[in-house]
Design goal:
With 268 residues, this protein is of the alpha+beta class. The chain has two domains: 148 residues, Jelly Rolls (Sandwich), CATH 2.60.120.810; 101 residues, Homeodomain-like (Arc Repressor Mutant, subunit A). It has twelve helices and ten strands. The strands form three sheets. It has a five-stranded mixed beta sheet. Helix 9 crosses helix 11 and helix 9 runs parallel beside helix 12. The longest helix has 18 residues. Keywords: DNA-binding, Transcription, Transcription regulation. It comes from Halpernia frigidisoli. One of its GO terms (molecular function) is sequence-specific DNA binding. This is AraC-type DNA-binding protein.
């Protein structure tokens, strides 16, 4: 018989469900597993894994339930306000963090294992954690993380905005992520006006038109050449819902994605 999922534990501000990480957060998998993709690298997490998802990175998640139909996690947000308050109490010299990975895996040790165990009343019972105690637990976690790996300070306490980067390379790598134009602008280190100006110069069109065409071309390729099912790929290529994807696809190519898939199946 399938069991009912227990409640997960979340300390700190809620994380936006969009494919952009606005604040650092610590993640521990209790039950089930998770796969993630950041445009370059694939990451896999299983029960017992600890990791840090990094602020200002793009990420697409797939949560996988276990044999008991359960996916459970502990999420602890290390937001900028909290980190700045911590830095006032515990001054630390900060350098450059030389690692571009969106997920940073944390090795288990006695301290972090005991910390997770201390949260058990909140993820396996009915206890509610108040804000003051939640902040104490977040500070405890941060102390443990920095004690075990001091170089993490260079990632946590860098409050600067992204530097200006190669726009063409970034957009071709990340067009599949369903984020707002403002997020693309921010991540490429530009103002909105300079982003649009540079985009027009590089691609010869505006961002909205380019993104839709790029995503539809990718969908066509996956359906036609890789024989993917339309219902399996519309989210992956950056569309929010299937009906919008199907309408745009038919307008662009003259047939619905399901028709293209059926035609390919008939020709095989």
């Amino acid at each position: 018989m399938q069991t009912t999922a227990i409640q997960s534990c979340h300390l700190g501000p809620e994380i936006s469900p969009e494919q952009f990480i606005p604040e650092h957060f610590f993640l521990y998998i209790l039950q089930g597993s998770m796969k993630a993709f950041d445009g370059k690298n694939n990451y896999s997490m299983k029960p017992g894994d600890y990791c840090i998802a990094r602020k200002n990175h793009l990420m697409r998640y797939t949560k996988l339930k276990d044999e008991n139909n359960s996916f459970q996690k502990i999420v602890i947000t290390l937001d900028e306000i909290f980190l700045k308050n911590y830095l006032e109490k515990h001054p630390i010299s900060v350098g450059v963090f030389d690692n571009e990975n969106s997920f940073l895996f944390v090795e288990e040790n006695v301290l972090i294992k005991s910390f997770i165990q201390s949260l058990k009343p909140y993820y396996s019972g009915n206890e509610q954690i108040d804000q003051t105690f939640a902040d104490v637990k977040r500070e405890e976690l941060l102390l443990i993380l920095l004690k075990n790996n001091p170089i993490l300070a260079d990632a946590f306490f860098n409050f600067g905005i992204p530097e200006k980067i190669n726009l063409e390379e970034f957009m071709n790598l990340n067009f599949r992520f369903n984020i707002s134009l403002e997020r693309f602008v921010f991540l490429t280190g530009r103002s909105l006006s300079s982003f649009k100006r540079d985009f027009q110069k590089i691609f010869g069109t505006n961002p909205g038109i380019w993104l839709k065409k790029k995503r539809l071309d990718e969908a066509y390729f996956q359906i036609s050449n890789q024989h993917e099912k339309p219902g399996n790929i519309y989210l992956e290529v950056g569309f929010e819902d299937f009906s919008h994807f199907s309408f745009a696809f038919k307008k662009e190519f003259g047939l619905a994605p399901t028709q293209l898939a059926a035609n390919n199946l008939g020709n095989r």
